[in-house]
Amino acid sequence: MTYKTVLVHLDQAPRCDVRIQLAAQISQSFGSHLIGAAMTGISRHIFNRGELDLTDPVFSHHRDHLRQHARDVLKHFEQVVASVGVDSLEPRLVDDDAAGGMVLQSRYADLTVLGQFDSAATIPGVMSNLPELVVLGSGRPVLIVPHSGQPAYPLQRLMVAWDGSLSASRAITLALPLLLRANTVDVVVMQTADKNDDAHGDQAGADLALFLARHKIKVNLVERQIKGDHGEALLSIAADLTTNLIVMGGYGHTRFRELVLGGVTRTLLQSMTVPVLMAH
Fold first, then answer.
1. What does the pLDDT look like over 172-185, one tens digit per residue?
2. Same domain, 140 and 201
């Protein structure tokens, strides 16, 4: 199993280089085609619906200005990737807003790499909930890179956050190419004493550990009784285990004008300390 196409979101964030480097390293190790996508910030629906006069000089000037910014980002992307060395590379300029463009583009990639939203950085055209919109809307695995720290590569120690859910099961399947290359995979099962949950079967995590072991993956089963916030507990366990990447299901759903996320998903997206691979 492998990733044939890796997509990375490009913007003007100060830490964009970090996510580009990680995407390039993954692409290089898998021999993947790497696509860097830069959005203009103008929704594609404006062009499709014919609501504006595209020949209007004011609009044309604004569009050209945004496209030039995107081209500058793409040029920088090529320079960063050149330092890593990737055989198959594609800079892609997309006339769309960040969320709509990345959701659409990611449906044609095996893995999408995004940056965690950084409230301290002002980035034109990037929504604060971009990662969750892409996780919930793409149907593909999304690797989210923290806005602080330097991700390790190769990803030698991975954590699987297992809760027996459909989204977690899907995330594990889509993360198999990375899990297969890890030195150790910690399957973490968090339990609460006051909750009767039979999603794991008779032995929590044992069936999943056996499933992964059949793939020749070295598995370490970690069971923890916890109190309080599950997301914070997960991050604490990740720190204790010196985890390079967390694999988990992205729980939530979208409503009109509203995004509803599960508590663990929300905590990880806000407070992650290592890259997180999510799928919904």
1. 999 999 999 999 99
2. no
